[in-house]
Design brief:
- With 92 residues, chain A is of the alpha+beta class.
- In chain A, 51% of the residues lie in helices and 14% in strands.
- Chain A contains four helices and two strands.
- A two-stranded antiparallel sheet of chain A has the order 1-2.
- In chain A, strand 1 and strand 2 form a beta hairpin.
- In chain A, helix 3 packs across helix 4.
- Chain B has 467 residues and is of the alpha/beta class.
- In chain B, the strands form five sheets. In chain B, strands 3-2-1-4-20-19-18 form a seven-stranded mixed beta sheet, with helices on one face. In chain B, strands 6-14-7-8-10-9 form a six-stranded parallel beta sheet. A three-stranded antiparallel beta sheet of chain B has the order 11-12-13, with no helix packed on it.
- In chain B, helix 1 packs across helix 13.
- The radius of gyration of chain B is 24 Å and the shape is globular.
- Classes of the chains: A alpha+beta (92), B alpha/beta (467).
- Chains A and B meet through helix 3 and helix 4 of A and helix 10 and helix 13 of B.
Chain lengths: 92, 467
Amino acid sequence: VREAAHNDRFFARTVADLMTRDVITGQPYDDLLTVAHTMTERRIRHLPVVDKDRLVGMVSIGDVVKAQRDHYQGEVDTLQTQLLADEGGLTH
Amino acid sequence: LTPQTGTPARPLRVAIIGAGPTGFYVADHLLRNPGVAVEVDLFDRLPTPYGLVRLGVAPDHQKIKFVTHAFDKVAASPGFRFFGGVDFGKHVTLADLKAHYHQIVYCTGAQTDRRMGIPGEDLAGSHPATEFVAWYNGHPDYRDCVFDLSQESVAVVGVGNVAVDVVRILCRTPEELATTDIADYALDALRKSRVKEVYLLGRRGPAQAAFTNPEIRELGELPDADITADPAEVELDPLSRAAVERSQDRPTLKKVEILREYARRPVSGKSKRLVLRFLVSPVELIGDDAGRVAAMRLVRNELSATSTGALQPRATDRFEEIPVGLVFRSVGYRGVPLSGVPFNESWGVILNDKGRVLDPGTKQPLVGEYTAGWIKRGPTGVIGTNKPDAAETVECMFEGLAGGAVLEPAHPEAAAADALVRQRQPSFVSYADWLKLDAIEVAQGRAQGRPRVKLTSVEEMLAALGR
């Protein structure tokens, strides 16, 4: 945007001049843990998801963080329930 | 002047379809919010609540079922009602609900299994693993299923928790099962089981297997089943090794260590044998003259990395055949569409954004319709994972309420909904009724030294309630 403000010729260019060509894409059944690592390591904030050469969606790093958070919250909750079962016994 | 919806004079009335963990989590988040007056009616097509906690979680995993105590607390909140045995689409329609509620939440889970898509899949003796699970857990719709346990060799396809449960139940002794709340008819059938050899088949390698370390450890501690694995198959291939080292993923390293120990273990002469196999996919079930499964043809896989680094199986040209007379598939699950509710066929979930059900044409949220749990996001995670998922949906529901996007029911009174259910399904089960059934089951169990003895048919349950 700053570039556009003082360079008239800027808008003569097309997105093809700017876009990333070697895009890393995900597949619907890629496991989340691996994808999270790849996105973190390569500093990818948005990952297009492609199924049989068709774009089917996008995953943002925020989506990945949220999914991991929910996953861990769920595990903690389930473990706590089982600890309560140990403490309280299984009878009513 | 009509009072605002969500105030004590005019509570927000919500219908939740499906009384599994997610249904209870949604009810909990709705009822515990101090700023909004809410009334919740929780519907289930079965007379009993808790969904898969009662009918999915394995009978030898009672501790996991302790979560029902939290659900009972939700059910005791003011503003909560349960309508068990009321089938959405049959006893009450979407139009009925729209006439009685401001908001509707679908929490019907993932009720059907994915198919393997191979020849012979429908031969006699080939079943979805979930049918076996529902059967041994006393699900009223599956109590009459028949599984040929006179077979000596069984293959379970998949390495997720359902597959592991099935394998474990097949390998337990009748004495072990007799102390659980397994359905009585299933215990009888398993007492006569002649199963000697059980294969657990994973299409990827040990590092990618979905089972958890506690689950796989438990398989190594079965009193009357030896566990074995092929030493070559439990070694990490170079791609998996690199991935594990890169991520320093300790649980996975531990998992591989456990599996290697199994591969080294000498056979100790127990009466059953559990064989773990990796990097194999079934390509065909071969039948005998009577049209029954007699063998399974497998292809050996190798792993290849996708561009994100995820490892996927790729078939080689090496095949083998294993003789098996019974096959259970557990290769994924998907939701079942609900009548009148937009559905995403390719993912097997309700079409939604963060739990707001979307119009399939405009992709805009529909007024007053929401979803949570597996039918919203697909079958992932543990029971507790549905809690943050439900919270996200409830947040959207309160946002909808604040923005005035609620249904305008003609009969927004609790009494009107109650009258509707009594008219359509007179033999519905209330939460008070369920607590009676629960007490009966627990009392019968206590007499036999078991957590409970399950009532497994709707008739039995109604009879126990004196109807």
